[in-house]
Amino acid sequence: MKLSFVIPVCNEEDTIRRLYDEINQYTEGYEKQFVFIDDGSTDSSFAKMQELAKEDQRVTVIRFRRNFGKSAALKQGFHYATGEIVFTLDADLQDNPAEIGKFLEKLDEGFDLVSGWKKKRHDPLEKKILSRFFNNVTSWVFGLRLHDYNCGFKAYRREITEEIDVYGELHRYIPVLADSKGFRVTEIPVDHRPREFGKTKYGFERYMRGFLDLLTVRLITGYNRSPLYLFGGWGTVMMAIGFVIEAYLTVLKLGFGHPLSNRPLLLLGLLMIMIGMQFLSIGLIGELLVNLFRKRSGASDVSISTVLNATGEEADG
Q1: Cα(10)–Cα(60) distance, rounded to whole angstroms?
Q2: Predicted confidence band at 224 (pLDDT cuts at 50, 70, 90)?
Q3: Helix or strand or coil: residue 134?
Q4: Angle, nearest 10°, between helix axes 125-142 and 204-222?
Q5: What is the pLDDT of residues 41-99, one digit of tens each?
Q6: Cα separation of the two ends of the chain
Q7: What is the value of pTM for the model shown?
Q8: Position 201 pLDDT exceeds 90
Q9: If phi over 0 gives left and psi between -120 and 50 gives alpha, with beta otherwise, what is residue 26?
Q10: Measured between alpha carbons, how far is 22 from 96 in angstroms, rounded to an integer?
């Protein structure tokens, strides 16, 4: 079994060599591949990776012209990864390669993605609080109970990296994307080491973007097959409320002679009906676009695990 290690790097010149050595130490006997992605480093990180590539033909180095973010780095790393099992680690040495064996044991139990859980975190208090809040909200929204979506230490079967498209800031939602396609996802506690070199690349704005991406992932995992269910549902509710309001005002006018010109409720009812119609129209347009895309691309909604031929054996391809 071949293992691929996809490692995004941004200004981690002091840790690259040590991380490479530690991974080799804990994976003796395995065929390996290292994919380092230089995400716009301004220190000597790229030179350090070049040295490794010259020494070891198993090392692939990808250099971005500027910082494009972790999702872009992982996407490129997944493209070049050739191992049956793909690991992702942060380059800051806080992820301990000694845990690799635990990930492999969990994969052997039949899981497709194993995510790390930094049960004892060595991070500032405010970062711990924000992360816990983010993880709780994400678990509640998607129903996938994980303690730590943000942990960069993960192990995947390569089928996942081939099927999932990661862009923007969606890397933290990879477990959700995998689960939505029917892959088996779990997590294990991992050793989270204190940062010895450099400084964190993430700030408060990371969580702000994360919650916006949560809406994106909720849409593409729950309503990408039929956007009318989302927009049409809300539109129908709004129109129904608007019609109830207008019916009530009509009864007051015709039955009791109450004037309507000075009633804000009249405008509210009309507004609800108009907004509801707009939502319903957006849903219908979305349905047309999705249908057109599927006809042109031959896209499928399902992720196929196994195909058996007439003899009951697994078919090729």
Answers
A1: 16
A2: low
A3: helix
A4: 10
A5: 999 999 999 999 999 999 999 999 998 888 899 999 999 999 999 999 999 888 999 99
A6: 20
A7: 0.76
A8: no
A9: alpha
A10: 8
State how far the Cα of 26 lies from the Cα of 3, in Å rounded to an integer: 12
As a whole number of angstroms, the distance between CA 263 and CA 244 comes to: 15
164: which 2 tokens? Answer: 């999932």
Amino acid at the residue 81? A
- Using CA atoms, how far apart are residues 120 and 201, in angstroms rounded to an integer? 20
User: What values do phi and psi take at 307, rounded to 5?
Assistant: -125, 125
Q: Outline where the chain has alpha helix (H).
A: 16-26, 45-55, 70-80, 100-108, 125-142, 158-163, 174-180, 204-222, 228-256, 264-297
Look up tokens 């060599």; give the residue. Answer: 17
**Contact of 99 with 75, CB cutoff 8 Å:** no
For residues 178 and 171, the answer to whether their CB atoms sit within 8 Å is: no
| Residue 312, amino acid | G
Report the amino acid identity of residue 46: F
Of 177, 182, 186, which Cα lies nearest the Cα of 213? Answer: 177
